[in-house]
């Protein structure tokens, strides 16, 4: 049974960098995409992006220029860095496991079958 | 990007009633690459359905999904007290992956 646990500072100042980590336990790292999703208070869900075990990444264009997602395989730790944050980045940030389908060496991320409990990040001075 | 529009925004039901939730896509979601999630208050979303009509592990059979193309439906045959929650649809046919804005199923 996979378990995901997010951690990071709850408060970040505008224009600074948000850094979060997610500890992954209980399952193979290599068979999935590892994902960050966020949810502003009282609102819907936004996919930020994901990373494969080989370092390949894909991002939502809405954050692409500011986001970096990485995977430390020995430490089984997923990370998110989001630069130049504003109040619009205030949200509950989830890490999640993404099922993949691979064909002809191309893998596609599908749905999110396990989620962490989320960590709230507030952007405020 | 594919925009998913869920309706109604809120569904007020009594336990035992049937719930019908709609998810409409701005363009065709080929392959029925659509999932549904349940989010109870204060909890992370939980996968209910994938491929439009396949139940995830451990999901009771009162939940069912249907649809194709641009119109998808999640049905709860008889709503139980633990089913009062917010439900989101998500497409995984195109990038970026997108979610609907949610339907809240509340106690009438």
Write structural notes for this entry.
The complex is a heterodimer of chains A (125) and B (108). Helix content of chain A is 0%, strand content 57%. With 125 residues, chain A is mostly beta strands. The radius of gyration of chain A is 14 Å and the shape is globular. Chain A starts with a strand and ends with a strand. The mean pLDDT of chain A is 94. By secondary structure, chain B is mainly β. Chain B has strands at residues 4-7, 10-13, 19-25, 34-39, 46-50, 54-55, 63-68, 71-76, 86-91, 98-99, 103-107. In chain B, the strands form two sheets. In chain B, strands 2, 4, 5, 6, 9, 10 and 11 form a seven-stranded mixed β-sheet that branches. Chain B has a four-stranded antiparallel β-sheet with strand order 1-3-8-7, with no helix packed on it. Chain B is globular, with a radius of gyration of 13 Å. The mean pLDDT of chain B is 96. Classes of the chains: A mainly beta (125), B mainly beta (108). The A-B interface holds A 43-47, 58, 60-62, 94, 99, 108-118 and B 33, 35, 37, 43-47, 50, 56, 88, 90, 92, 95-102.
Instruction: Describe the sheet with the most strands of chain A.
Output: 7 strands, mixed
Largest interface: pair, residues per side: A-B, 22 and 21 residues
Distance between the termini of chain A: 39 Å
Oligomer: heterodimer
Number of helices of chain B: 0
Helix content of chain B: under 10%
Q: Which outline of chain A best applies?
A: globular
């Amino acid at each position: 049974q996979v378990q995901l646990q997010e951690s990071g500072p709850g408060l970040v100042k505008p224009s600074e960098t948000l850094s979060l980590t997610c500890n992954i336990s209980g399952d193979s790292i290599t068979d999935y995409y590892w994902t960050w999703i966020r949810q502003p208070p009282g609102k819907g869900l936004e996919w930020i992006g994901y990373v494969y075990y080989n370092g390949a990444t894909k991002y939502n264009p809405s954050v692409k220029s500011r986001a970096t997602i990485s995977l430390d395989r020995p430490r089984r730790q997923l990370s998110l860095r989001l630069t130049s944050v504003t109040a619009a980045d205030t949200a509950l940030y989830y890490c999640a496991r993404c099922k993949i389908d691979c064909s002809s060496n191309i893998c596609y991320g599908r749905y999110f079958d396990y989620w962490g409990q989320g960590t709230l990040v507030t952007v405020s001075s | 990007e594919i925009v998913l529009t869920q309706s109604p925004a809120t569904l007020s039901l009594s336990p035992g009633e049937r719930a019908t939730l709609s998810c409409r896509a701005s363009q065709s979601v080929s392959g029925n690459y659509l999932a549904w999630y349940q989010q109870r208050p204060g909890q992370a979303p939980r996968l209910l359905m994938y491929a439009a009509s396949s139940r995830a592990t451990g999901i009771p059979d009162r939940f069912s999904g249907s649809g194709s193309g641009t119109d998808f439906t999640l049905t709860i045959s008889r709503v139980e007290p633990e089913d009062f929650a917010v439900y989101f649809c998500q497409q995984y046919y195109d990038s970026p992956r997108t979610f609907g804005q949610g339907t809240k199923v509340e106690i009438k």
